[in-house]
UniProtKB/TrEMBL annotation:
Role: Toxic component of a toxin-antitoxin (TA) system. An RNase.
Origin organism lineage: Bacteria, Bacillati, Bacillota, Clostridia, Eubacteriales
Gene field: vapC
Annotated organism of origin: Desulfofundulus kuznetsovii (strain DSM 6115 / VKM B-1805 / 17)
Keyword Iron: no
Classification via Gene3D superfamilies: 5'-nuclease
Family membership: Belongs to the PINc/VapC protein family.
Keyword Magnesium: yes
Residues given in the record as Mg(2+) binding sites: 6, 96
Name by which UniProt lists this protein: Ribonuclease VapC
A GO MF label: toxin activity
Key words of the record: Hydrolase, Magnesium, Metal-binding, Nuclease, Toxin, Toxin-antitoxin system
């Protein structure tokens, strides 16, 4: 099983807020080909990159990554997730549902600091990877 890396983890990595151990783990899974991200995460990173230097850092970080698309299956599953969670009284954003659906359909764990945003898929806290080597 591989990993889908969420926006918050990549922001922390880019800004130096990810611990050295978690950063080393992230680099290791990227080098092994076990990490990917979503086109939604790519969008969020570029949207948040306010300067040309920040946009260049995003592009450089992700240049060798697999960026997974949103297709009809992902969109349909994301709608189901969002509807099912709403019926349980949980409000999830569209972006997180699309990321969760992408991970679910590709059998990936979501590496995130925002575990509550992904109740339907297996998640991994980035700092936990540093101690367990997941």
């Amino acid at each position: 099983m591989g990993y889908l890396i969420d926006t918050c983890v990549l922001i922390d990595h880019l800004t130096g807020r990810l611990s050295p151990d978690a950063g080393a783990w992230l680099e290791q899974v990227v080098a092994s080909g076990s990490a990917a991200t979503s086109v939604i995460v790519y969008h969020e990173l570029l949207y948040g990159a306010r300067t040309e230097k920040a946009r260049a850092a995003v592009e450089k970080l992700l240049e060798a990554w697999e960026i997974l698309p949103v297709d009809r299956r992902v969109a349909g599953r994301a709608a189901e997730i969002r509807r099912d969670q709403a019926a349980k009284g949980r409000t999830l954003g569209m972006a997180d549902c699309l990321i969760a659906a992408t991970a679910e359909l590709r059998n990936l764990k979501v590496v995130t600091s925002n575990v509550k945003d992904f109740p339907t898929v297996e998640t991994v806290l980035p700092e936990k990877t540093a101690t367990t080597g997941l």
